[in-house]
Design goal:
2,3-Dihydroxybiphenyl 1,2-Dioxygenase, domain 1
Amino acid sequence: MNHFHAAIPIFNVKDVPAAIAYYVEKLGFQKEWEWGEPADYACVSRGDVRVFLCQDGQGGPGMWISVFIDDVDALHAEYEKRGAIIRQAPTTFPWGVREMNVEDLDGHRLRMGSEATGPADGVPLNEEP
């Protein structure tokens, strides 16, 4: 059996350098590499999570990714200070995850979640564009 090693989303973006800057400055990622002159393909990472950024090519608008982290409330405080686009503050959902949802410059969503420690808040997931 082949072992699967990773799945990396490819987000279609309008401007790779601007997307890299947002992921680094607002979301705390690091630029791993960029390709092209000027860059039209790149990779950003934080911990074990990687996202490819492709200018006007692969992927479609408004893609979503779910990222599991240790403490969503602490990340929310960090993102508020950094000025990230927060579409939904940390909310405890009935599926046992406390998560927030963050948007990048191109409308892609990152659902950042950690294990819920209490009952559901009774608030639906914000899926509005």
